[in-house]
Design a protein that fits this description.
With about 55 residues, the protein is mostly helical. It is built from two helices and no strands.
C-alpha cells in the first residue's frame, strides 16, 4: 500500500502548489498559506512512507 499512499501524498502536494499559485495570482494570502500547508503535509507524509520502506527491507 506504500505506492498508493505516496501517490496520494504527491497529489496533495500538487493540489497545494495549485492553491498557492491561485492564491498568488488573486492576492489571496489565506489560499496561499493553505497551499503551502498542503505541500508541507504531503512532503512530511512522503518522508514517513520512505522511512516505512526502509524498515520493510
Amino acid at each position: 500500500m506504500g505506492i498508493v499512499d505516496k501517490a496520494k501524498n504527491t497529489a496533495e502536494k500538487l493540489v497545494g502548489q495549485a492553491k498557492e499559485a491561485v492564491g498568488d495570482a488573486t492576492n489571496d494570502d489565506q489560499l496561499k498559506a493553505e497551499g503551502k500547508k498542503d505541500q508541507a503535509k504531503g512532503s512530511v507524509k512522503n518522508a514517513v512512507e520512505d522511512v516505512k520502506d526502509v524498515f520493510k527491507k
